[in-house]
Every structure is written in structure tokens, then in C-alpha cells.
Amino acid sequence: MKLRTGALLLAISFFCLVTPAQQKEQGTIIDEVQMYVSPDANAQKLARATRGRDVPLVMERTKIGDQSWAHVLIIVDVDRERETNRQITGWVPSKVVISTATPNADQIIFGEAVDSENQAEQRGGRKHAAEDAMRLYYRIYDYWPNSPLAGEALWRAADVRWQLEKADVRLRPSSREMNPDLRNPIDDEPMKLVMKKYPHTKWSDLAAYDLIDNKLCGSWKGETHCPEKESELYEKYAREHPQSPKAAEALFNAAWRQAALVQMYGAQHDKERDKARRKALELAQEAATKSSAGDPKLADWKPRAMELMYSLQQGIPTYDAGTDRK
Amino acid sequence: MVKLIKMIGLPLLALAVIGSFSAIALAAEQEHATLIREESLYVSAGANAQKTAQADRGSALTILERSQAGGQPWMKISMAADQQAQVSKEATGWIPGKTVITASTANGDEVVFGQAVDSERQAEERGGRKGAAEDALRLYARVPELFPGSPLAAEAMWRAADIRWQLAKADFVRSGKPLDDKYLREVVAKFPQSKQAELAAYDLLDNQMCPEWRGMAECPIKESALYEQYAHQHPQSPKAAEALYNAAWRQAALTDIYRINNDREKSEAARKKATALAQEVQGQQPDVDWKARATDLIYKLENKIPIYGAGVVEAGETK
Q1: Are B29 and B68 in contact (CB under 8 A)?
Q2: Coil, helix or strand at residue B221
Q3: What is the pLDDT of residue B174?
Q4: Which of A110, A221, A238, B39 is 20 to 30 Å from B168 by CA-CA measure?
Q5: Which parts of A84-208 are beta strand (E)?
Q6: B289 touches chain A (CB under 8 A)
Q7: What is the pLDDT of residues A94-123, one digit of tens each?
């Protein structure tokens, strides 16, 4: 008897060893669902799981009547700061589980993520739709790393998180601090992951651009060192990422800061003012040539650069010192 | 009698002809312009003169006179009444010339367009400049007026019409004021077969949408047909994929509406139609987002995941 139990344990261990992690059925859910203790809509409810939640294991599937059910392990809550999560096992309708066994799973999840992102942008859109989009995008990278959508999905997940945190940081009083070191930075780990996993790609270029936010002054307070430093940061970015979709924007931002410096230096510092003016014109000219008429997203940078150059040539103010508006 | 008419009429006719020529010549001489910064209007040329009014970015100006004051160029202008700029009647005054863009300004079209883009961005930013959307609207509108031959004219005219449309739509939600489609129709008429005309035609569909469905089938049927018709009439439009997806989504919603009403046959027909339309999006569109959204919709249709469920109706959402 003992021998038979031992053999069974050995067989289970062996099965676990030979079953590679990839063969485990894993995925996420594409709709908000109720979890039940058993495969029955009248059974005791366990929790509500939202879109994009991590399903690290689909344990079994069964059919009761017309309805297919999946017995899943779902991570329903993650506290990133404390690095804690809550794992719950329960039954959910099988159709909302998109797993490694689902054909076109990456496309389906990506589509649901785009839909959620769209909802988040709409006035009166679904509550927490941005967080849904963020999780759904991340799952593609997590479970389908070889998908052609994985790089873009990881970037979008990181960007949604970045924008949410940025909005949060802006609400704090420290957001107006001139020195960026005096405010809580936006967590840059997700962006760094994009750059590490997909180096020399458009997504890596975009992630590097977002990271500049953490180095910008909260306000300038009329001090020249802020626009000087920021102009350098943007120009450096444009030089290091010449193929980036953000290269023209970065050059324009660098030029615009130099144009603001022209005003800030004023008549008292004519040498610095003239230097800033020359630099602004050079950078604006470069932004105009980088702008592509064929790409509607990039085409606008040329007229903006032309307007900036015209304003510089005519001595028209470009920086509203009163509102410190950048 | 004929003689009399000839005798009296000829000099009158000559006067009328001279008069109309003068008017034409005057109109041709009048130089039109706009502003890329807001400026005060002064009673005379010079920054120390009394201010009389405010001219916003993108105001429609007519230059009446030019002068120099304090080493700077000044212009006497007349500013047309503009409801959008809250200018109730025509105003005249002097303004500094450096912010005035005329048809003869080098790269003037790009300068005005660039300031319009900047204002549009301001309008989209939290805490952006007040009235920035209206500034953008006026600036864009000036581009085809001042520079009709510019390669930016069509895009600028479309953007002006679109901003006006979006502002009117927001107003419609608040006040129920009907949308005026005149400006979008002008884009279609002036630049037919262009990308901008296709975008304008897409905006125009808004006027034919139901404000609420109230769980009835008529509205999604009509809306789906409108979107499908648009997609098939404008296959090159940047909005073709979105239109097809919207048509598919409405058919998917119909699947649920008919199912709730226990009309299985119609529900199944709507499901088939929705799937066919979503497959058309998948097959035709290189755009990653619409292709993925179509795949997601097909999966939901195949697995009977509600798109427009009872919960949604109860929550008061209609679409």
C-alpha cells in the first residue's frame, strides 16, 4: 500500500516536472464576471472579477446544461506598492476566459483592450475602463510574448499606467515644485521593461520619450535653468532617437523652450538672448524638416515650427510668464 | 419713349457701371488678414493710445491703413462682427502689425495653421487657455479664406468645421439645440472626393443617429444601415473601418435586443450580419486597432457574450 501511494506521488511529481509552464492553460477574462464556488449561476458567489485579471491557471472545464464553465485561479487584487495579491479559485462562464488554448487570443484581448481604452476616453465611459485596458494589454505580453502585438501591447499598458499616474501626480501640491527631485516620480519600471524587452523598436522610442516627464520642472518660476535643462533633454532625445515618432515633437519642444528663454533673458542679457534665439530657430527648422506631410500625426509639427520661427523673427511672445504655461 | 429711356438711361447706366467698378476695385484693394495672438485695438497707432476693444486670435480683419509708431508697424483694421469671438458689431481700430498675417505674408498659411494647431492642443489640455477651441476654429477657418490655393486649405476648412461640429454637439447634449451642418456641407462641396470631404460626410451621420435606443430595434437597424452605406460609399475614407465596425456593433446589439424579445430568427439573422460586417473589417483593414476590435466582436458573437445586455439597459445606457 505504502509503495502504491509512493508511486502515485512520484508519478504526480514526474507529471509536474515534465509539464512545461507553457503547456499550462493560462490567460485572462474579457468581461466583468461573477465567480462562483461551483459551476452554477445559483451557487454561492465568491467575488467579481474585472477585465484583464490574471488567470495563471485554468484547472478544468465542464458543461452544465447549455453553459460551459471554467474552474480558474484568478488574481483579483494586486497591491503594487506592497507587492501583495489575492488569489481566488472559482468557477466562471467559460466563454469569458481567453486562454493560451483560444485561437486568435492575442487579437481578441487586444481588441477588448482597445475597446476599454476607447471607453476610458469617452465622457460617461465605463468606470475604471483605463485600468481594464492596462491589464488587458499587459496580459498579451505576459502570456503571448511571441505575438506580433506583444511589443505594442506592453508599451500601451505602460503608457496607460504612466498617464494615470501622471494625472495623479499633477493633483498633488508637490507637482508645482520647480525641482523634479522634490516630487514623487512616476513609477518608471513598466517603461524600462518596454525598453529592455523591445530595444531599438518604435515602442522603446516611445517609452524613452515618456520617461522625460519625470525630469521636467513642475514650474519654471521665471528661472532660466529649467527651460535650459528641458531643452537639452528634448534635443538629446531627438538626437538619440532620430527614427522615433516623437522626434519632431521633441525638437519642437526643445525649440519652444529656447524661444521662451529669449523672452526670459530679455534686453539685460543680450548675448544669452541672441544665442537662445539662434538655437530656437535652428531647432524649429529641424523640427519642420522632420515633420512628415504624409503622416497625419506628424504633419502638424511643420506648421507649428513655422509659426514659432515667424514669432521669433517678429519678436512675438511665445511664453506666457504670468501663467507659467508651457 | 425708347428715345427718352436712351437719353436718360444712358448716363444713369454709365454712372451705375462706374459705381459698380469702383466697388469691385475697392473690394479688390481691401486687404484681408487675421491675428495669431490676441491684441487690443487702439484709437490711434501707438501702444500708449487708448484701448477700445479686444481682437481674438483668428479674427477676420480688413486692413484700412498702415503706419509706423515707435519704430513698429501699425495697422488700422476693421474687425467683422463674429458670434464665436463674441464681437457683436463691426469694430475699427489700430493694432501692432507684427501679429497680423495677410495673404502676402511669407508662409502665412503655415503660420496661421500652426497657431491653430497650437490652440487646438491648448483646448485639449487640462487647464489650457480659455477659449482656445474657438481660437483654433477661427484660425483654421481663415486659412482657406486668406490662402485658397494653399495645400493646407482643405484640411484647415475641415478642422474648422469639425471643431464647430464638436462644440455644437456638446451644446446639443446640454440644450438640445439642433446641429447646423452648413459648414461640413461646405467642405464636401468645396473639396469633393477629398479625404476631408469623407471625414465631413462621416460627421454628418451624427445628425441621423437616435439620441436614445430605449431597447427598441428601429434605431440600431437604421444606424447600422447608415454606417454600412457610408463604408461602402467611401471605401478609401480614414473612417471606413470605424463605420463598418459601428455597423457590425449595432447588428451585434440587435442580436441581443431580439434575443431579449424572444425573436430567435431575427436575432440569428442579426448575428450573421454582424459577423459578416466584422469579417469585412478584419479582411480589409490594415489598422491594428479595428482589426483586433472586429476579432473581439466576432468572438463575442460566436460565444453569445451579450454586447447590449439587460444589465446595460437597466443601468440606463442606451448604446
Answers
A1: no
A2: helix
A3: 73
A4: B39
A5: 84-93, 97-99
A6: yes
A7: 999 999 999 999 999 999 999 999 999 988
Domain assignments of chain B as residue spans, ordered by start: 31-102, 128-206, 209-319
Q: Which CATH number fits domain A21-101: 2.30.30, 1.10.287, 3.30.1450, 1.10.150?
A: 2.30.30
Give this prediction's pTM: 0.85
Helix (H, G, I), strand (E, B) or coil at B41: strand
Q: How far apart are CA A242 and CA A251, in angstroms?
A: 10
Unique residue bearing C-alpha cell 511672445: A317
Question: Any idea where the domains of chain A sit in the sequence?
Answer: 21-101, 220-326
CA distance A182 to chain B (A): 22
Q: Is the reported ipTM for this assembly greater than 0.90?
A: no
Question: What residues in A contact B171, CB-CB < 8 Å?
Answer: none
Instruction: Determine the residue type at A297.
Output: K
Q: Which CATH architecture has domain B31-102?
A: Roll (2.30)
Backbone torsions φ then ψ of A88, nearest 5 degrees? -125, 140
Q: Provide the residue count of chain A.
A: 326
Cell of B145: 479664406
Task: Measure CB to CB from residue B295 to each of A111, A300, A314 and give the nearest one.
Answer: A111
Top residue of A300, A301, A313 to mutate, by most chain B CBs within 10 Å, is: A300
d(CA A119, CA A132): 10
